[in-house]
């Protein structure tokens, strides 16, 4: 529809109808206006797939793509574009018009629980990947929603914390991926952050939502709140928030009608917000879509192949002494396959980005599909779980419409395992979410005798019994912890001796308590016989008697998750001990890490090779096996610096006001100096630098030639770079171009990434690429004049294979001062 037709449609609506478009009707959709033939806008979470319209766990199955940091590690914009397009197809299959992604917040602290979901510590790398992903998605008619706008870079007190960031830092770092998504990719959706920015909630921050987004950048899509992240009526509407989510509304509807009548919000403002909504709905095919939501499972061979290829492209080979990798299938001998992640496929992080995958390929399964299982010797070694392993078995759930289990249950259902998350309505609407009791019952038959641990976490007051005996008490003294988006308590663990082969009754009783922010009810029951010294001894034994030891360690989506930051970056549980013990008996030890960000590696000098494989989606094990056997190149380069220790990261400080926050404020005092910009300035050598990653061949940069000795009138210059594959097999590399402004009148980083290219070359092949730098690539943000400024003087161009592996340099001059608009 034309803008005039959309305007006429909005003008045909009553005030109440216009207002009805400005909030959700349920968790994932808006209200239709049948009188005018206007459909409902349906959204689904992302960004590493489209989960659909159900709960966070279970439900219809979806394709699990590599998580954000893995996509960041590919440095491959074409691949990001293909993935955006594929996720658009999944979004449609889930009956939705709009995907809630990509997540383009920035890796400020190595401990942020959501780093796995975001691309990088570098704004330009994030911006280029986000724009490619959005273009791929929107070319298929599905709306993207960049999130979370802005400075939502930690999960500590995430719904109330104020990020205190100066304007230069916002403009040069944290806003950059959002700006590019608006200006270059034309994103149709933006989600405001939970946090406050400089004292005002992002959802009612007029400077952000109107001045920066709409006036400076010319945005014409919608801004929606994060879930329950809108806290006012007139303020949010006037500041620029179009859509309050989820529904039913808390702040709009009748309250907004009253605010208009009271003169707190103008009719014109409502018209503008409603027009933004219908414009988006028209673009995304929702405006005239009167169909019911139907969710289907696509599971196409094309998507499966894309995910497998992307997983290998994301894998970063950090170290490879004596070219121990790739492994040669013909001379394999025996391989010890060790570690908690060997037989458990870690495919995604936790929180709203999780989905119910079509399948999960573990590294062990990936290996077995490429070599005979008789070559493999498996030992788990130790655990890496944050919570006790989930209870796996059917549970009967009996709901009572009172808080005392009185009378007959009003609703009964079954649950396939020990974890459930309910959003909105409970028990088919038969109980009040704030006044119910729930009894879960199932049975458990141990395979071995011993002292078992039973763990319980819940948003309500919960108790777990085994054969009537109280084992875990998360009822008395319940306090909020770090589960279920900070709505649940921390896991409470009890112990009980159980005998092998005997059937035990497990009962969990939960009494509701008012939800803090998000209106969710959730519980998790775990049970295990803990692994002890014998498990490490078994792993050592397997390693000693094998030709090579592959150790699969890391974290899980319980650690790398929305809702809680990490407290440190050690490998959890006894994994460091496990790696060291294995390496001590087998010098040919290869560590495959799966984490959502850096970990300390105290054993690094004792192992031969390390691969960081992240959470690469449902094809995890196949992608890892492809890289191990050289079927695919380890295509990844670090999108985040890996410091030797957490203390080296700028967010680690004695001052809690800088991180994790103090009295409701977190001060971004390091300014623009995050990631490699910090390590450069502080003279700290990271364990593995930003941009680092090895391949199975070698590359040289054979020429670096700016097209002119000086910048052109708009401040730009083209730069030719020539790369040669000097090895004897085909391979890929990422050539990285950094700019240095050593004469600036403000403090600037020693180098800033401004352009890059991923190239695949045959043995001996040479290629010339042109990287284009614009005026913005030389500019800093001048807070006084509110312009981007390029200062006359000399700039250095640094070209290399990582932030610390600069191979060649050139210079260009800016002959005069230049001011560029915002
Ligand atoms: C997250 C968003 C997500 C939304 C809906 C929030 O908790 O911060 O990223 O899209 O929930 O699930």
Task: Provide the list of bound ligands, each named once.
Answer: beta-D-glucopyranose
State the helical fraction.
10-25%
Instruction: Count helical runs.
Output: 17
Low-pLDDT stretches are none
Structural class: alpha/beta
In terms of DSSP E residues, the strand content is: 25-35%
Distance between the termini: 30 Å
Describe the structure.
The chain is 21% helix and 25% strand. It has 17 helices and 35 strands. The strands form 8 sheets. A 6-stranded mixed beta sheet has the order 9-24-23-22-10-11. Strands 13-12-15-20-17-18 form a 6-stranded antiparallel beta sheet, with no helix packed on it. The structure holds beta-D-glucopyranose.
Task: Supply database-style keywords.
single chain; 822 residues; alpha/beta; six-stranded mixed β-sheet; six-stranded antiparallel β-sheet; 17 helices; globular; binds beta-D-glucopyranose
Concise synopsis of the structure shown:
The protein is of the alpha/beta class and 822 residues long.
Secondary structure: elements and pairs:
Layout lengths: L2 H9 L3 H6 L22 E3 L22 H7 L2 H17 L4 E3 L22 H16 L4 E7 L12 E3 L2 H8 L1 H8 L5 E4 L3 E2 L2 E2 L4 H11 L5 E3 L9 H6 L14 H8 L5 H17 L17 H14 L1 E5 L14 E4 L24 H6 L7 E4 L12 E9 L10 E7 L1 E5 L13 E8 L5 E9 L2 E6 L2 E6 L17 E7 L5 E8 L8 E9 L4 H12 L3 E7 L20 H11 L3 E6 L14 E4 L7 H9 L36 E3 L8 H7 L16 E8 L10 E9 L5 E10 L11 E10 L4 E8 L6 E3 L4 E4 L2 E10 L2 E10 L3 E3 L2
The protein binds beta-D-glucopyranose (BGC).
């Amino acid at each position: 529809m034309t803008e005039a037709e959309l305007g006429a449609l909005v003008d045909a609506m009553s005030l109440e109808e216009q207002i009805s478009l400005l909030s959700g009707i349920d968790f994932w959709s808006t209200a239709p206006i049948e009188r005018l033939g206007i459909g409902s806008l349906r959204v689904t979470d992302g960004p590493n797939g489209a989960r659909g319209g159900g709960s966070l766990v279970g439900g219809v199955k979806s394709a699990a793509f590599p998580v954000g940091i893995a996509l960041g590690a590919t440095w491959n914009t074409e691949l990001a574009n293909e993935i955006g397009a594929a996720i658009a197809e999944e979004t449609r299959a889930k009956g939705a018009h709009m995907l809630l992604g990509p997540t383009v917040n920035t890796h400020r602290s190595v401990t942020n629980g959501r780093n796995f979901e975001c691309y990088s510590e570098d704004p330009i790398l994030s911006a280029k990947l986000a724009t490619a992903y959005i273009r791929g998605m929107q070319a298929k008619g599905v709306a993207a929603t960049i999130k979370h706008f802005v400075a939502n870079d930690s999960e500590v007190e995430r719904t109330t914390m104020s990020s205190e960031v100066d304007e230069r830092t916002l403009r040069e770092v944290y806003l950059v991926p959002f700006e590019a998504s608006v200006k270059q990719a034309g994103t149709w959706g933006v989600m405001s952050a939970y946090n406050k920015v400089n004292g005002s909630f992002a959802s009612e921050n007029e400077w952000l939502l109107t001045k920066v987004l709409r006036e400076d950048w010319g945005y014409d899509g919608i801004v929606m709140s994060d879930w329950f992240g809108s806290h006012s009526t007139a303020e949010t509407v006037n500041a620029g928030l179009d859509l309050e989510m989820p529904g039913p509304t808390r702040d709009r509807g009748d309250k907004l009608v009253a605010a208009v009548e009271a003169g707190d919000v103008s009719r014109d403002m409502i018209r503008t917000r409603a027009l933004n909504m219908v414009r988006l709905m028209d673009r995304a095919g929702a405006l005239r879509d009167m169909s019911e939501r139907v969710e289907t499972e696509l599971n196409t061979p094309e998507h499966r192949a894309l995910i497998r290829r992307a997983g290998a492209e994301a894998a970063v080979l950090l170290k490879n002494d004596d070219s121990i990798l790739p492994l040669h299938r013909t001379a394999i001998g025996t391989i010890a396959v060790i570690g908690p992640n060997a037989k458990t496929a870690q495919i995604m992080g936790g929180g709203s980005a999780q989905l119910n995958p079509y399948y999960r390929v573990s590294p062990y399964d990936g290996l077995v599909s490429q070599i005979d299982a008789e070559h493999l010797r498996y030992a788990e070694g130790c655990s890496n779980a944050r919570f006790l392993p989930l209870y796996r078995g059917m549970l009967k759930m009996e709901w009572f419409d009172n808080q005392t289990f009185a009378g007959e249950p009003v609703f009964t259902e079954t649950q396939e395992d020990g974890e459930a998350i309910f959003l909105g309505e409970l028990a088919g609407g038969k109980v009040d979410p704030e006044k119910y009791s729930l009894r879960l019952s199932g049975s458990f038959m141990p395979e071995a005798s011993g002292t078992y641990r039973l763990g319980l976490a819940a948003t309500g007051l919960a108790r777990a019994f085994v054969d009537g005996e109280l084992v875990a008490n998360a009822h008395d003294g319940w306090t909020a912890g770090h589960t279920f988006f900070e709505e649940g308590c921390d896991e409470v663990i009890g112990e009980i001796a159980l005998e092998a082969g005997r059937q035990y009754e497990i009962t969990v009783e939960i009494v509701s308590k008012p939800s803090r922010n998000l209106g969710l009810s959730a519980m998790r029951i775990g049970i295990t016989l803990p692994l002890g010294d014998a498990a490490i001894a078994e792993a050592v034994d397997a390693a000693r008697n094998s030709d090579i030891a592959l150790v699969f360690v890391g974290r899980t989506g319980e650690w790398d998750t929305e809702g809680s930051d990490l407290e440190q970056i050690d490998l959890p549980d006894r994994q460091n001990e496990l790696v060291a013990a294995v390496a001590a008996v087998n010098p040919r030890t290869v560590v495959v890490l799966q984490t959502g960000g850096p970990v300390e590696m105290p054993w690094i000098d004792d192992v031969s090779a390390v691969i960081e494989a992240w959470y690469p989606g449902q094809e995890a094990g196949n992608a890892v096996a492809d890289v191990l056997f050289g079927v695919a190149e380890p295509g990844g380069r670090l999108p985040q610096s890996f410091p030797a220790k957490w203390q080296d990261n700028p967010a680690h400080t004695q001052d809690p006001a800088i991180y994790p926050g103090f009295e409701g404020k977190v001060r971004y005092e390091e300014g623009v100096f995050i990631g490699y910009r910090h390590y450069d300035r502080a003279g700290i050598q990271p364990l593995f630098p930003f941009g680092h990653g090895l391949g199975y061949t070698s590359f040289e940069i054979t020429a670096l030639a700016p097209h002119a000795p000086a910048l052109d009138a708009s401040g730009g210059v083209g730069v030719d770079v020539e790369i040669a594959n000097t090895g004897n097999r085909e391979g890929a590399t990422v050539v990285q171009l950094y700019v240095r402004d050593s004469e600036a009148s403000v403090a600037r980083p020693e180098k800033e990434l401004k352009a890059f290219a991923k190239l695949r070359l045959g043995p001996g092949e040479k290629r010339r690429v042109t990287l284009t730098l614009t005026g913005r690539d030389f500019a800093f943000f001048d807070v006084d004049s509110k312009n981007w400024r390029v200062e006359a003087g000399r700039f250095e161009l640094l070209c290399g294979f990582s932030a610390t592996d600069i191979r060649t340099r050139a210079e260009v001059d800016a002959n005069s001062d230049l001011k560029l608009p915002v």
